[in-house]
Amino acid sequence: MSVSSHLNPEPERRLWIIHENLRRSQDWTDLKLGALGAFAALELALGRFLLPPGAAAYAAGVLLAAALPLCVFAVSPFIERPPRVPLPFPSRGKPRPEDSLLNASDLEKYTQMELVIILDKYLGGGITATPYYEDIVGQILTIARVTCRKARFFAAAAALALAAQLLLLGRLAFR
After folding, report:
1. Sign of CA dihedral 59, 60, 62, 66
2. Where are the alpha helices (DSSP H) in the chain?
3. Second label for 117, Cα 20 to 30 Å away, from 63, 79, 96, 170?
4. How far lies 60's CA from each of 33, 39, 66, 145, 148, in Å?
């Protein structure tokens, strides 16, 4: 048992709270991806019938059609498959004071051992005493990486959909 374990008698509960917050963030990202995919599919279907044919309508249709596979791929279960070697990604930098240990984009840049050490200090100790807690940290890191990957797919699909909207708006404005 760690020397500072008396400072934090329940590191497991706090780790699971972080885990659940990240899981909710992942679910929210999935919901946004689904809504964007449904919007793109609906607009693609309606735009085919409601908009007059032209280069802008065709380009908007291509952009919306490109956004759909991104949304579908991002919500697929294949993106969540864990790597064969548990979390081997290299560190992308040292911990910075502005990093939030509750934010997926800040957590994903650490390796599992770095995050165990950082969370041990953050939660007041007791995490490095048991491999079970280190496994929870591994799950936290996996969820953070999946959430960030999905958020990047959402950002790319949203940029394509926004470009399509601007084209359609321009087409309607200069009709």
Report:
1. positive
2. 11-50, 55-75, 104-107, 112-122, 131-173
3. 79
4. 19, 13, 10, 31, 27
SS3 134: helix
Inter-residue contact 4 to 128 (CB < 8 Å)? no
Domain range annotation of the chain: 9-78+99-173
Residue with the two structure tokens 């019938």: 49
Taken in order 96, 101, 106, 107, the sign of the CA dihedral is positive
d(CA 103, CA 100): 5
Q: What is the pLDDT of residues 13-50, one digit of tens each?
A: 888 888 899 899 999 999 999 999 999 999 888 877 77
Q: What are the φ and ψ backbone dihedral angles of 130, each rounded to 5 degrees?
A: -135, 130
Q: What is the pTM of this model?
A: 0.76
Around 88, how many Cα atoms within 13 Å sit in the side-chain half-sphere? 4
